[in-house]
Write a structure and sequence with these properties.
The chain is globular. The strands form two sheets. Strands 1-2-3-5-4-6-7-10-11-12 form a ten-stranded mixed β-sheet, with helices on both faces. Strands 8-9 form a two-stranded antiparallel sheet. It is α/β, with parallel strands linked by helices. The N terminus is likely disordered. The protein has 14 helices and twelve strands. Helices cover 40% and strands 15% of the residues. It starts with 28 loop residues before the first strand and ends with a strand.
């Protein structure tokens, strides 16, 4: 049974809901953690429908263009999440991420989204362990729904009004206010993963206020909860299949000559029995979802370090599996999972943006069976499954419901996606490109999550478009490096 998306009337996607953003310049100061970058804050409304009401301070950071004479303007960045801390990204984590030409032509600007990091972070009570019962049963479903409401109510009371204004449409309005405060007549934006939802919705809300939007590894904000889970599961299985094929066909794989599928099933059985742990750390037990999550994470971020070869990155997965297989059994099961603050903030964002609250345990069990049918080894995409389980019982209203995009009169938009991305399926990017008038999709025939750091062709096309916002022909494909 599929879950119908919430009615679009729940939150009209109209720019006139927002007052004209402030144009007050940001008072930049050298960042405490690195004085070569600048840091500041921007005062914004908690509720954009009440622009003169309560406010919060959004933390921002920038690295100035290295060639001021050829500077184009600001490039606002978001590295996904939800909740990627843009201040840390620009100041440290990704300060050397882009090409020298992009660094020369743009001030790179990051921000901590509302509710995260230095931007009025949520205040939530200490959480206890999550339910350990199966949410596809009546008792498990009720336990998860009750726990979700308890977590949300605690955060809402402790945080105040901001808790109910964390959806991506609110962040999009924050981005437009940031554009104005930076002094840019039109926005240049690059977003990856959850940041693509910001890019796509900015195009819908403010089609005449951007010069360049890049969406790398795309979300599809038109799908319901069932399709979300099933497509994510199929995509995780696709990446595992690609890994197995590589090991079978390449002597460079440290598991070459072994049956990787049989090995993985043996590890999964041990995880279910509570006898599996991280190699070298018997205090860190792995349950079945922990095992799936770890493997899927590594496959998502293959070749995260630009200096690392794809073979070396893949062998990190192979070596992990071999190490777990060689380790003796763990004598005790792993402790139950206790959600941290980031997980609870994610709940507030994800459950505001997606109709993931599968209505009853029977419907959830049917979705889970279909997911396991298309993903016999991966079973589920654990990141998607966790997102869904946090939304059971609808602890947060869906204020930014999934819907087909309505984009008119916008400048050309560039979408980029790897063919084998275990987190954001290529099908999502194809759907988004079809539904956003003026969007062009570049497909990179490669692996892992995010294209810019993994495919030189995709990176070069992205750079070219950001500097001169003309998209390539719609059938453009990039071969793997």
């Amino acid at each position: 049974m599929s879950v119908a998306a919430a009615a679009p009337s729940a939150r009209p996607a109209r720019a006139d809901l927002a007052a004209a953003p402030t144009s007050r310049p940001i008072a930049w100061q050298p960042c405490a953690q690195d004085p070569t970058a600048d840091c500041g804050t921007l005062t914004l409304p908690v509720d954009w429908t009440r622009p003169h009401g309560a406010t919060f301070e959004m933390a921002v950071a920038r690295r100035k263009a290295t060639d001021p004479a050829r500077r184009i303007g600001s490039l606002v960045l978001n590295y996904g999440g939800p909740g990627s801390l843009g201040v840390d990204d620009v100041v440290g984590t990704y300060k050397n991420f882009f090409s020298a030409e992009i660094d020369a032509r743009f001030d790179r600007v990051g921000f901590d989204p509302r509710g995260w990091g230095r931007s009025a972070p949520l205040d939530c009570p200490q959480a206890g362990p999550r339910p350990t019962v199966d949410p596809t049963t009546a008792a498990g479903f009720a336990a998860f729904a009750a726990d979700n409401r308890r977590l949300a109510d605690g955060c809402r009371v402790a945080t105040g009004p901001l808790y109910d204004h964390l959806d991506t449409l609110a962040v999009v309005r924050d981005i437009d206010a940031l554009r104005a405060a930076l002094g840019d007549a039109r926005l240049s934006f690059w977003g990856v993963s959850y940041g693509t939802l910001m890019a796509q919705q900015y195009a819908e809300l403010f089609p005449h206020r951007f010069r360049a939007l890049v969406a790398d590894s795309n979300m599809d904000h038109s799908i319901d909860g069932a399709e979300f889970l099933e497509s994510e599961a199929a995509n995780a299985e696709d990446s595992f299949t690609e890994f197995v094929k590589w090991c079978a066909g390449s002597a460079d794989c440290s598991l070459h000559g072994r049956d990787v599928e049989v090995l993985f099933e043996r590890l999964y059985a041990r995880a279910r029995a509570g006898t599996l742990y991280v190699p070298g750390d018997p205090t860190h037990g792995l349950g079945p979802d922990n095992l799936l999550s770890g493997v899927q994470f590594l496959m998502s971020y293959l070749k995260h370090d630009p200096a690392e070869t794809l073979t070396a990155a893949r062998n990190r997965v192979a070596d992990l599996l071999a190490g777990m297989d060689a380790a003796p059994p763990l004598p005790a099961p792993p402790p139950p999972y206790v959600p941290d603050l980031d997980a609870r903030t994610s709940q507030a964002v994800l459950c505001s943006d997606w109709s993931l609250d599968i209505p009853d345990p029977g419907a959830l069990a049917a979705v889970d069976r279909r997911s396991k049918a298309v993903a016999p080894h991966m079973r589920r995409n654990i990141q998607a499954w966790n997102a869904m389980t946090y939304c059971l019982g609808r602890p947060t209203p869906v204020t930014n419901p999934p819907r087909p995009y309505r984009v008119a009169g916008a400048a050309p938009i560039l979408l980029v996606n790897n063919r084998h991305d275990p987190q954001t399926p290529l099908s999502w990017a194809v759907h988004a490109a079809r539904r956003i008038r003026g969007a062009t999709l570049v497909t990179a025939a490669g692996w892992g999550h995010m294209s810019y750091d993994k495919n030189r062709c995709a990176a070069a096309l992205t750079d070219r478009y950001l500097i001169d916002p003309r998209t390539p022909v719609p059938t453009t494909h990039c071969a793997p490096d």
